[in-house]
Amino acid sequence: MGNFETSVFVSGSWKNGEGTDWRLRISVHDSDFATVDYRPVAGSSGRFYLGFQPCDYFEDPTTSDPVDLQAESSGLSQWAAAVLGINVTSTELLALMAPEGVEDPLDDFVEDTLVRLLNRLGMPLPTWLATETPFTETELNTQEPSRDWPVIALDVARELGGMTSREYLLVTYDIGHRDYSVYGQFAINEGNFQCEVVSEKFLPADVWTINDGYLRQSGWSAPENGSPNWTMCQEQAEIAAGSVLNAMRSGLGCTDPQLIDVSLGRF
């Protein structure tokens, strides 16, 4: 059996159990998913999940409300700046949050994802988390930074920020097939980022499974005559990067960041 723990961050330290005057609340369920609550800012609900969303974990849509990941990652970024004095981008935070429909979470044990989050927020670890996961710190410190999903998201966002309308950015995932790969791509159209991820037209179902339901629920437009891939338009580089990488991870089953490659091309 995994951990069942709840802690609240009050006056600069963690306290076990519930409370009212907290700044951040974390609750772990059986080491499989964690609920994270923060004091919301305008446009956010103040709640997101790590590992799985309860509606997926329990296979019951009534167990959790829909989460607007872009709003929550932006809200938590603003919260961190205002409350903790820490500058952390919404892209980094978005890469850690559990999207709806995820089948393979970022880590096998959600405590590891929670450590990643608290480290990026510059926060201390609750006693139970520090004692349960001492190996996680070593693993994170020795892991190649370029192969960590949040860092990949930052790299993609930086590339997008410097991209011109005569260039495109391609993110590929090696599935070990000579003729096919999973990919996402970006171009600039009328000042916005035109985002695409591969569809069954270029990646047959008998080669690789695409979770159409996740893509639709996440706001992607289904392939049509004018565009053979799944498409989405975003105004900000960070949000565009997070949208495509989350689609690749949760909609296209890209679970291993070691297999990601990012390349810039010209039209």
Give a concise summary.
The protein is of the alpha+beta class and 267 residues long. It has nine helices and ten strands.
Question: What do these coordinates show?
Answer:
This protein is α+β, with helices and mostly antiparallel strands. The chain folds into two domains: 4-121, no CATH class; 149-266, no CATH class. The chain has helices spanning 54-57, 69-84, 90-94, 110-120, 127-132, 134-142, 149-161, 212-217, 237-251, and strands at residues 4-10, 13-16, 24-29, 33-38, 47-50, 167-173, 182-189, 192-197, 230-234, 260-266. The strands form two sheets. A five-stranded antiparallel β-sheet has the order 2-1-3-4-5. It has a five-stranded antiparallel β-sheet with strand order 9-8-7-6-10, with helices on one face. It comes from Arthrobacter alpinus.
The sequence of SSEs as H and E is EEEEEHHHHHHHEEEHEHE
- What's the pLDDT, averaged over the residues? 86
Distance between the termini: 54 Å
> How many domains make up the 3D coordinates?
2
Strand content range: 15-25%
Report the uncertain regions: 133-146
Class per helix and strand makeup: alpha+beta
Fraction of residues in helix: 25-40%
| Major sheet description | 5 strands, antiparallel
The number of helical runs is: 9
Return Rg in Å.
19 Å
Total beta-strand segments:
10
Side-by-side strand order of the widest sheet? 2-1-3-4-5
Draw up the topology in text.
Layout: E1 4-10, E2 13-16, E3 24-29, E4 33-38, E5 47-50, H1 54-57, H2 69-84, H3 90-94, H4 110-120, H5 127-132, H6 134-142, H7 149-161, E6 167-173, E7 182-189, E8 192-197, H8 212-217, E9 230-234, H9 237-251, E10 260-266
Antiparallel strand pairs: 1-2, 1-3, 3-4, 4-5, 6-7, 6-10, 7-8, 8-9
Protein name: TY-Chap N-terminal domain-containing protein
Domain TY-Chap N-terminal: 148-258
